[in-house]
Amino acid sequence: MSTSVKLEMWSGFRDNALSSSFVQNYSSYDVVKLVVISVGFCVLLSKAWRRHGGGKGEIPGRLGWPFLGETFAFLSATNSTKGCYEFVRLRRLWHGKWFKTRIFGKTHVFVPSPEGAKTIFSNDFVQFNKGYVKSMADAVGRRSLLCVPVESHKRIRRLLSDPFSMPSLAKFVTKFDKMVSDRLQIKAAKGESFRLLDFSMKVTFDSMCEMLMSVRDPSLLDEIQSLCDDVSNAMLSLPLMIPGTRYYKGIKGREKLMKVFGDMIGKRRSGEESWEEDFLQSMLCKDSLPPEERLEDEEIMDNLITLIIAGQTTTAAAIMWSVKFLNDNQQAQDLLREEQLLIDKNKPHGEALTLGDLNAMSYASKVMKETLRMSNVLLWFPRVALDDCRIEGLKIQKGWHVNIDATCIHYDPSFYKDPMQFNPSRFDERQKPYTYMPFGSGPRTCLGINMAKVTMLVFLHRLAGGYKWSVDDPDTNLEKKSHIPRLRSGCPITLIPIEN
Ligand code: HEM
């Protein structure tokens, strides 16, 4: 058909239409209304279509500009007092449970289901792996559990594990118990408000350094803490070795930390420094074993940094949230206190807690679980697809980041009734597989899971069994620029000793 014929047909149709009774009988207001309704209908239809993956297993979402994608929106959420999960929450409202986005040039899919979590965790290292982040490897070290390939990961993890087993933690429990009891007493005696987050950061750090390397000297503890902070800040920074940047500070911090740890190892080996039974010594006493049964010095040192960084902020934040949630739910606080007072009653006065006592803390253990469910200290667990694949029938391309969205699963009302209610008793019932995973799952399950649990139980026992408290700032805003949700206020509290 020639162009002129087509034009003729179109103008004929237009002329007929214009002269038709349709236009004559309806006002321009009606036409506008019709257009708006039609456009709205099309938008809804296309949304529904995308939500259902367009029927072809496509995941809905907005990739935005090339490379940049939605990076600015992500950074803006991270820099706000709502926290970076707000970015995820909003996109779920817009696109549905499954969605994809682009951040820093990489496509990310947020995986919202237990089935998806199971697929990824049970294929960890095979079909999925942790994404390689240069700044992270440079900061914590290439021999860190967080960075090594699968074969080394298995060996290093096996050799690191023993000091974190429950029986090995008995001594840690006694020491941590004394540390927490003494420090709470000092705070209570002062009768002043203090930031609980600072308290929990310091006590978890000091107790970890004691357990790992028997470091007690306050100035050395301060030095290691400040260097670890620098390393931790560099882990997700731009790897630019320019003075003044977070990356530069972190790399310099790492060099100094390596020197501190290296000196410590050297002095223990030469006998210049007496040693105690601690994590470091349990690694060094394998010196005479064949290579596959011991760790090289670099592996020990990289993993010392890793353990401190992975263990301190997470546990400290969880402790802070437990206090906040218990403050908001007086009934749970009373039940927790009742259990702790009963445990105390059955022990000689002043005796330290044992693993047996912790086993008897059935309600405290539910408080701990519920705290971890609601606080989602690690919001999601990132992996990268090593090949094209499908999760629940949805297409995932090689190189895409698939983030197991533990927060979404922990807040899903189909697994947790009234998910935003702090209700420890919900853990009277067993959870369905992959619906509760604050410590991850599979070969990368948290190495410090037992240590984190006993730390929280001892803290809950000493706090609720010895004191009532008021939270002195009701502000619920979150700290800006933190990937671990923490209250901006630091959760200030005042302790009120319980009269026995
Ligand atoms: C409440 C406190 C804690 C929480 C919520 C927590 C959570 C987690 C989670 C979810 C993972 C897995 C992440 C993933 O799969 O991508 C993990 C890994 C890890 N955690 Fe923890 N953690 C806590 C305390 C600790 C402590 C106290 C330590 C050690 C002292 C520790 C050491 C580690 C290490 C080394 C890994 C890496 C394991 C590997 O890749 O094989 N964590 N943690």
Automatic annotation (TrEMBL):
GO molecular function: heme binding; iron ion binding; monooxygenase activity; oxidoreductase activity, acting on paired donors, with incorporation or reduction of molecular oxygen
InterPro entries hit by this protein: Cyt_P450, Cyt_P450_CS, Cyt_P450_E_grp-I, Cyt_P450_sf
PROSITE patterns: CYTOCHROME_P450 (PS00086)
Record's signal peptide: none
Cofactor (UniProt): heme
GO biological process: brassinosteroid biosynthetic process; brassinosteroid homeostasis; sterol metabolic process
Protein name as catalogued: Cytochrome P450
Organism expressing this protein natively: Aristolochia fimbriata (White veined hardy Dutchman's pipe vine)
